[in-house]
Amino acid sequence: MCGIVGYNGKDSVTDQLLESLELLEYRGYDSAGLATLNETTGKVKLRKCAGRVADLRKICQNDKKISTCGIGHTRWATHGGVNDVNAHPHRSGDVLLVHNGIVENYEELIDHFMLHKELKSQTDTEVVAAVLNKFYQGDPHEAICKTVKYLKGTFALVVMFVDQPEVIYAIRNVSPIVAACNQNGTMLASDVAALGSTADKYMVIPEYVITELHKNEIKLFDLKGKPVEPHFMDIDWDTTRDGKGKYPFYMEKEIMEQPDVIKATMEERIIDGKIDLSGDGVPDEVLRDCERICVVACGTAMHAGLVAKSLVQSRLGMHMNVEYASEFMYGNPVIDEKTLVLAISQSGETIDTLEALKYARKKGAKSIAVINVKGSSIARESDYVMYTSAGPEIAVASTKAYTTQLAVLFLLVGRMAKVRGVFDDGAEKAYLENMVQAPDKMQQVLDQKHDIHKIAREMLDAKDAYMLGRGLDYSILLEGALKLKEVSYIHTEAYASGELKHGTIALITENTPVVATVTQEKLKDKELSNIREVQSRGASVVLFVKDGIDLADAEYADVFTLPAMMDEFMVFPASAALQLLAYYVSMDKGLDVDKPRNLAKVVTVE
Ligand code: F6R
Asked: Which structural domain, as residue segments, surrounds residue 523?
């Protein structure tokens, strides 16, 4: 959470920073700010405000854009409310600072360094700036080394010292910083997407290494002052954004892209009609020898894990746990060297998932990360990585990342079935025949988006909504409910429909909107009978039903027919329909679909 950026080069820094902050805005959009330092005059300009980067741009529009060295920030508030004063950068004496992370012991530091009178904001960041300033006697390295020894928590700090106008300094613990160098200067940022399209190589700043950003080079030093060799990697995925195209919001564009990105995700992993994970470097022994599988993930990524669990248990007959990464360690999980941990994450930076993965690896587990953003922290921490080919996902609500995660997980389970002797060639072929149909079946749903839009219009005034399903339908709906609540602000809960009578049914009254999916042949009778129970109590039921399932002569508020696939694969068309439902409700309510309130795309604080 929070995006940080620094630029030192030949061009106007204000333009560079604003551009990068726009690319980083999905990490937080409460407030934004930048500080520039003119090397010739030594003058500092600090601009910040509550609101979006667009508001910051307005403030900067009449500035003379002459400085070529500066730092910037887009905030997701942790300590202190959303206002101009709490926005970054923070200045204390000669120090200007932006920060991503949480300094847990900031109150102790206020007492220890007697900072009470000098702080203007409620942020932990200003405390760090003040401590740095206390230690700063003209030697940035000394001040940084002394300061970080006092800090508890996670941090990515980017600092300018007013009397050192030629250099930007950075240091981090856990929270990411990447850096790149091109013919126009040097840059650092919270993620590769913000480095600009001209860089083709980047480095991940190692933890507790002091980074100096000069105009034409990046220097690294350990805390003892010894130079550290930078390790550059290729940027081998397209970080340019081609905008929203013909769509009003990225969310719609990303929903519509799913058939293509799922195909791309499968393409290199299906060779001569067989699942082949050799390109991912995942050895068959890892898949064959594990005795347990455990997923650690958050939010939507965790829901992808739940779908995989059904598959693992039905196809492989293996035990699989799916854990909220944030709860994982507190449950004393049973993990050993026979456990295969799957860490699923779009951003690859979710701190809870990262910490859960580290914990599992310490206990001896082998790990595979299913990640969208190449080179991200979780990808680097894991034994093996399987990348999804979703491409940049800009809308905060995850759509194409989720379904490409599913595609990877389905292929992983398919390969496990093969190497464990569950699938013979014929079974693998039948499984893959279904898998490769998923993009077309989703496309059929997407082609009927106007019908789903009509259904959405009926839900605009709802305060609460419920989603009901059993088995795999329940897992599908957990994600459907998350999507609806996060973008439409309608309080929505998914329930296992068999649980209704144990309490939840008390919430159903006249016209309560209930969304149900009925996609599993063997569960359909029970699901339909649970739906009748809520209908008898006045619920208005919208049904997404697999083509071919007989609804007898029952009546529903709305019925949308999903193209039929083998039950296990119905998650693909059903998810597309539920995503569109959430999208249209949000859009028709006039909300900022791509940036729902209070959220950030990358969650780097616990
Ligand atoms: C919801 C959503 C979140 C993320 C979660 C994990 O639409 O996007 O629930 O799935 O924050 O993020 P990643 O996948 O980046 O680890």
From this structure: 439-591
